Amino acid sequence: MAIGTFASLVNSKVVVPSTRNDYWAVNKHFLSDLLSTRLGQVYVDQAWYLGRYPDVAKAIETGSVADAAEHYRKYGFFEHRMPMRIEVQEDWYLSEYADVGIAVRERVFPSAQAHFDLVGYAEGRLPHANFALVEVTEGAAGERHEAKRPARTVASRTGLGSQATEAEVIAGAKSAAGDETRNGTWRRAP
């Protein structure tokens, strides 16, 4: 979509300013197009994404999207899909989100990681302090650089490969319910 003046966006109802507050209503396709460049900077683990979301593999087969990265950029971000395996810092997450700590103690979720994987990401909870899917850094002359930032993997501590499906993540989390994390490593609870 071409962008003319702000007035042309308002006149065409692509942007609708509120008369009551500082918010604007924005056409979702326009917003998606604006975010597309930024979302293109997000690291998408193709193998993990396709393993976690088998429907995307079907979409690639039918030609609806070219690959996992395109799916994430066009649809997955807005559908609250994780672009890669994201490791939760258990101690931080549990202290930041007291309700999750209660749910883990009551065994509603076997771990903070399981909570994040199943519902926390979609709820907008952060896995650790200063988390970002894309970091923006400034160079020596003040120019801005986009840096892809893949999250740390938990495959080594859960025994799950990078292509684990959601069901495998749940099963792995349930089997680990008697385990605890300390400094990012699994150990059997005493």
Question: Biggest sheet, in brief?
Answer: 2 strands, antiparallel
Number of structural units classed as domains: 1
Could you list the spans in which at least 5 consecutive residues all have pLDDT below 50?
Answer: 144-190
**Helicity range of the residues?**
40-55%
Overall form = globular
Rg: 20 Å
What's the average pLDDT? 79
The CA-CA distance between the termini, in Å, is 60 Å
The secondary structure category is alpha+beta
The percentage of residues in β strands lies in 5-15%
Describe this protein's structure:
By secondary structure, the protein is an alpha+beta fold. The protein has helices spanning 6-11, 28-39, 46-52, 54-61, 68-76, 90-96, 98-105, 112-123, 155-158, 166-175, and strands at 15-17, 24-26, 134-138, 144-148, 179-182, 185-188. The chain has one domain (40-180). Strand 5 and strand 6 form a beta hairpin. The longest helix has 12 residues, at 28-39. The termini are far apart. Helices cover 44% and strands 13% of the residues. It has a two-stranded antiparallel sheet with strand order 1-2.
For the structure shown, list the relevant keywords.
single chain, 190 residues, alpha+beta, two-stranded antiparallel sheet, 10 helices, 44% helix, disordered C terminus
Write a brief structural summary:
44% of the residues lie in helices and 13% in strands. It has 190 residues and is α+β, with helices and mostly antiparallel strands.
Tell me the layout of helices and strands.
Blueprint: H1 6-11, E1 15-17, E2 24-26, H2 28-39, H3 46-52, H4 54-61, H5 68-76, H6 90-96, H7 98-105, H8 112-123, E3 134-138, E4 144-148, H9 155-158, H10 166-175, E5 179-182, E6 185-188
Antiparallel strand pairs: 1-2, 3-4, 5-6
